[in-house]
Amino acid sequence: MSIAAWQRASLPMLVLSVLAVAPRHGYGISQALVSAGLQPIKGAQLYPALVRLEDEGAIVAQWEQSESGPARKVYELTAEGHTLREDLLEQWRAFMTAAEAVGRAQ
Amino acid sequence: MGVVAVGASMWPVGDREWVARYRTSMADRNVPALALEERERELAGTVREMKLSAAELFGDAEELASEDAAELATVEEEVRTSLGGGLQPALKEVGGMLVGLGVVASLVAIIRSGWSIDIDTALVLVGASLLVAFLGWVIARALFSSGRSAAAVAAGVGAGAVAVAGIACAAKVGAGHVAASDVPLPLLVVGLLVPGIATLVIADRMPQQELRENWDDSQWLRRFRGGLRARLVPAVTARGHVAEIEQTLAAGGMSAYSEFGHPLILAHEVARADRTARRRFWAMSTIAAVGTPLCLAVLVMANQSWGMVTIPVAVAFFLMAAGAFLVGWDRRPWTTQR
């Protein structure tokens, strides 16, 4: 499994973690992931993930007028989003612990 | 142990029935042919290696197919094979409709006449008008599903106008004008069925179509918006999605296709994630699935068009409507998990 595939599988958790730091627009989320050392994520993957998270109530979006250009849609984490992020991180840690244990046993 | 060739893989003869059920269950589940072939090769390989039957190894074929379809189905395949995904699905729809109408017309002719029939001019005009209306409906739906709303409206209005003109012409001609007399019924039945069957054969033999890859951004955005509206995303929400993508494209300087892929694939994914669109889509499809056979049942009863079998035919349509209602209720979006 490639790193890109791992990223796709864990995209909701990554997006929520980026937004837990500060509200961002879609392209800003993508840039934040790249800055953290991850591979660039195409809009084709990121955008549906954002719509799903918004539909689930984990994030909310609002249009903000930027100083230099057109209005931008900015996403922000909700209380539900914080809870979901914690759940996902917990599951991720449990998975990593188990995977490392399997690795050590080999 | 004997083996039977299945595509690129080899299945033991004893598993033939299991494989057939697996394949039937996988049909129309939006799994790409290559992925399905690879999965079958994997399953057949395991069967040969373990020297056990497929049923013993994998359990129920339908259950495994459901699990595999959930994993292997892609939105790209869904778009490619759905009405609006290109010429092939549209031809299949047209062929199916022509066969359906041909069968109905043949049965009515068989029930109402003997071995030969006089073909009334007005009846031909009415039949042709109805055919144009049905074809227009399919073409308009295909265009609407592909995100071309204006073309869909034009096709619908055009077909409607031709159909109305045809019926008006039939009314003017009136009954009693025979276009052809003593036409042998078998010949008529063949004439009614051949166009639909030929269309289905042509569609089946067409090479697998690929989704378009060359888009300029304005075309892409128009089709994306049209695709969202076709999946019943509210207009305001659709405009918001388009504006956000425009904003992303302006910020990143990339092309819409390179960043977001095919507009209809993204539109389907976004619509699937939208609660309002999901509910609207469910309501519309359930109303259509229940309403169509109900309307047909009422028409059959009102016209007594099936002679002695009018009541059984109407009951069959009522049962179809009831079945569609139960299926729709079972899939209601407020209780179904995405």
From TrEMBL, chain A:
Name recorded for this polypeptide: PadR family transcriptional regulator PadR
Classification lineage: Bacteria, Bacillati, Actinomycetota, Actinomycetes, Propionibacteriales
A Pfam family reported for this protein in Swiss-Prot or TrEMBL: PadR
Gene3D superfamilies: Winged helix-like DNA-binding domain superfamily/Winged helix DNA-binding domain
Transcription regulator PadR N-terminal domain location: 15-84
UniProtKB/TrEMBL annotation, chain B:
UniProt keyword annotations, A-Z: Membrane, Transmembrane, Transmembrane helix
Chain ranges passing through the membrane: 94-115, 121-144, 151-173, 185-203, 281-302, 308-329
Stated name of the protein: Uncharacterized protein
Native organism: Nocardioides salarius
